[in-house]
C-alpha cells in the first residue's frame, strides 16, 4: 500500500467505505424484505457480516493513515505525543524490555531516535485481535492519533449489544434477531463507521498529528 498524499488517502477511505456500505445496504434490503420463514435466518447470518465490515473498515483505514504519515517523512520529535511510542518500540525492535532500567531510562531521556523520520510497518501495529471491542478500539484510536472520547458513550452498545450478539452467533448459540433489533443495530454500526471515518480524515486535514497542532 502506497499513500503519498491526502487525495490518495481520501480515495482509499472513500473506496473502503463505499463498497462496504453498498454490500451491507443490499444485504439488509434482502433480509428485511424476505418472508418471515427465511428472514430470521438471514438476519442472524448478517450480524457476523456486519461485524466483519466494522472491523475491516477500522483496520484498513487505520493502516492507511499510518502509511500516509510514514510517507511524509516526519521526524518523531515533530509528531504529537501519541506517536512517540512508535519510536520507542522501533528502537527496541518492537519489544521494550520491561525489567531493563537502562531501556526505561533511554525512553525517559528521549534517547530513542526522535530525530529520525517516522518509519514503521503499519500492519505490525494495527491489530483488531479479531474482536474489535471498546478496549481494542481505544488502543487503535491512540495508535492512529484520534480522540476516543466520542466512542465512550457507545461502549455498552459495542461490547454487549453488538459483539455480545456476534459472539453468541459465531459460537453456535440459538439466537433470534428480529427485524427491529437488526435495523437498530445496523444503524448504530453504520454510525460507528461514519464516526471513525470522519475522525481519521479530520485528523489528517487539521494535521493534528503534528506537535504544534496538538
Describe this structure in words.
The chain is 65% helix and 0% strand. With 214 residues, it is mostly helical. The two termini are 27 Å apart. The mean pLDDT is 90.
Series of H and E elements: HHHHHHHH
Mean pLDDT across every amino acid position: 90
Largest sheet descriptor: none
Supply the helix-strand structural class: mainly alpha
Ranges with pLDDT <50 over ≥5 residues? none
Distance between the ends: 27 Å
Number of strands: 0
Q: What percent of residues adopt helix (DSSP H or I)?
A: 55-70%
Strand content: under 5%
Based on Cα principal axes, name the global outline. elongated
**What is the alpha-carbon Rg in Å?**
20 Å
How many helices? The count is 8
Index terms:
214 residues; mainly alpha
Strand and helix map with partners:
Layout: H1 6-33, H2 36-72, H3 84-91, H4 101-109, H5 122-125, H6 134-144, H7 155-170, H8 179-205
Quick take:
With 214 residues, the protein is mainly α. The chain is built from 8 helices and no strands. Helix 1 packs antiparallel against helix 2.
